[in-house]
Amino acid sequence: MRLARVPAFLLLVAAGVLGTAQPAGAATQPDAEYLSPAHALNLTIIAAAHTASGQSASSCIRKVARQLERDHRKLAAQENTVAARLDLELATTVADDQRRQLVALAAKAGKKGYDAAWLQFQRQQHQEYLKLVTGDVAKSASPAVESVANGAKPVIEMDLRMVTGQCKDATGTPSVDTGAGGMVADARQTRSRVALALIALGLLLLLVGKSVPVRRRLLGIGALGVGLVMLLGGAVHDTGQVPKAAVGPQEREAAVPPVELKVPGLLTVRVQPVAAGGDGRLQVPATADVGWWAAGAAPGAQGGTVLLAGHVDTARGRGVFAKLSEVPMDARVAVTDGAGEQHWYRIVARRTYRQNNLPPDLFNGSQKPRLALVTCTGSYDHAAHRYSDNLVLYGVPLD
């Protein structure tokens, strides 16, 4: 009975990840040469992961298998979306060779050696997939297909680490360390000290002495006012209502990865897909680019959080998100995907969280689509080269 269910599940896998976008052009040869084998690999990885999630004796294998299935369903859905726009038909079932391998692997379930065989099989599939996304075919494909390949790379690398050697449960909430210079915190601290000095001076001019001359009173009021403006104006306060998120079954990620973020009047930057490294930290670019959590939602998806993270500062200077705290509520933000389509969001909330204590739903899905812009804030530990807090701006789609 167990083996008989495997081919049937393969059909369900294919049906479950098909996109619904309408044709919008013709595929080039590199497009087809990338999308077809990439999609075949995803279907195979999903099927093997699904079997292990229910039949492995190892809790680590079961947990990692569920993560792999979620990750590769998203990748497969992105491939289907782009393929449909290019009028390219992808396979709907696992190829015969892969199906035979899956049946042989499933036959070992419940027996000694199944977990090791499953890890080896997934390693081989991910290594082949990684070779494909970093090859010349992906680089010469159309922009939309190239963005899908670029978005797949960090996810494959992250998942590959989980199945290399012994099973590694790396499915916890990543930390977002986006500050390594401390200059923004130092500038904020200097501003606060100057503000407090002006406030003290103003109070001194206004309160000391039995009678206060008019000129002295005006100077005192001016110093007090400037000090209060500096002190209160530099503070970052929580505001707005965070769009609700519910951890649970994730909606299909039929969308194209982002390539650009635009905050009118503040910044326009490139977006690089990133994932969590072996240390559990999001691998945010050290350049002037912003990192997109590639295991999460893409702009235009029907559900999930589009998480973009950027440095507030680095050892070389101020970072791309140095002024993120200055973005006002109701500001409009545009995220452009690899197909050239702009997705607009309205900023509705600002929150500060302690480092290593970001809400898990930022990473593992939400029922409604939303945007999260993340950087560092708070005090800076010069010895550890780390900020105390994370700043998150939340946005909701306008379209």
Automatic annotation (TrEMBL):
SUPFAM superfamilies reported for this sequence: Sortase
Swiss-Prot/TrEMBL keywords: Hydrolase, Membrane, Signal, Transmembrane, Transmembrane helix
Ranges for domain DUF4142: 30-163
Protein's UniProt name: DUF4142 domain-containing protein
Transmembrane segments: 192-209, 218-236
GO terms, molecular function: hydrolase activity
Signal peptide interval: 1-26
Gene3D superfamilies: Sortase (2.40.260.10)
One Pfam family named in its UniProt record: DUF4142
Keyword field contains Transmembrane: yes
